[in-house]
Amino acid sequence: MYNLLRNALFLLSPETSHEFSMDSLGALNRLKMSGLIAAKNVDEPCEFLGLKLKNPVGLAAGLDKNGDYIDALDALGFGYVEVGTVTPLPQRGNDKPRLFRLPEKKSIINRMGFNNKGIDHLVEQVKNRKSKGVVGINIGKNKNTPAELAVNDYLICLEKAYEVADYITINLSSPNTPGLRDLQFGEPLNQLLGQLKDKQVQLDNQTGLYRPILVKIAPDMEAFDIEQVAKAFVKYGIDGAITTNTTIKRDAVQGLKHCDEMGGLSGAVLLDDSNTALRVFKETVGDKMPIIGVGGITKGEDAISKIKNGADVVQIYSGFIYEGPKLISDCVNALRTLK
């Protein structure tokens, strides 16, 4: 059923298809008909960072940037849902077209550029959700904010999201905001992590709530750089990591239509590089930090590969676009075999 639906949706432009699909999911949920397409047999409770997940397969940030469809996505069977990336101020993102399918490789290129309605809108959506599932909020900086002032944007979003989020992800690794990935290295990273941790402690004291902070990293770093980033996370007491974001490499899609489009490449072709980065990160941090593995999961065996390379739980996004809710079931069932 999903394959037929996907073929019809793929006749539309990617962004139009996305908007239509999300609106349709919202409508199905309001009509209490999500069960028609929801994943089956996905009740597999687990714990991550002290949070009780319905199962270990979550939705990565990017599909629901504004938190407008949390209830609908939760109803599909995800173990947890991450919304965003959101910025302090609303922004339109990059010029269209900015989203491209590479169906031969079950992959996607995007250069959306953190298009979103702003942190205030998202916070209200998360606050008013009906579902009780775990929700993470992924935060970033506005495009026009200079790199040297980026920490201010993250602190604004952290403070506003703190009480309504179950966890908060710091996005330093999108390739679609100029200068953002530079924040993953050296002194800029140390200053950012230090100030974020101080703010977390302050907010914990003020609210009596401890909200874990995770940082999402890129797959394109050399092993030495990943090791240095991992050590910085441990030094500043970051609660967890998400490995990885999209890649700027194009080796695996050369010759395909859209292969030379600027932006981050996700989907099946990302699996190996993402797993390599995950493995290096895990070898560096050991048991000092839990990890969400994301990048390239299009079948159950891919989810297993994440766990074997060091992840504690996983997320999907591009694979979900190509495979639909069945991918949640496939991943949950595959991960059951590891017990």
> What would you give as the CATH superfamily?
Aldolase class I
Strand content: 15-25%
Unreliable stretches (pLDDT < 50, length at least 5) are: none
Order of helices and strands: HHEEEHEEEHEHEHEHEEHEHEHH
Mean pLDDT: 95
| Order of the strands making up the biggest sheet | 3-4-7-8-9-10-12-13
Helix fraction, binned, reads 25-40%
Number of helical regions: 11
Based on secondary structure, the structural category is alpha/beta
The shape is globular
CATH architecture level-2 label: Alpha-Beta Barrel
CATH class: Alpha Beta
Q: Under CATH, the topology is which? A: TIM Barrel
How would a crystallographer describe the biggest sheet? 8 strands, parallel, barrel
Please report the distance between the alpha carbons of the first and last residues: 31 Å
Radius of gyration: 18 Å
In total, how many beta strands?
Answer: 13
Write down the domain tally.
1
Describe this protein's structure.
The protein has 339 residues and is an alpha/beta fold. It has 11 helices and 13 strands. Helix 6 packs parallel to helix 7, helix 7 packs across helix 8 and helix 9 crosses helix 11. The longest helix is centred in the middle third of the chain and has 22 residues. It is globular. The two termini are 31 Å apart.
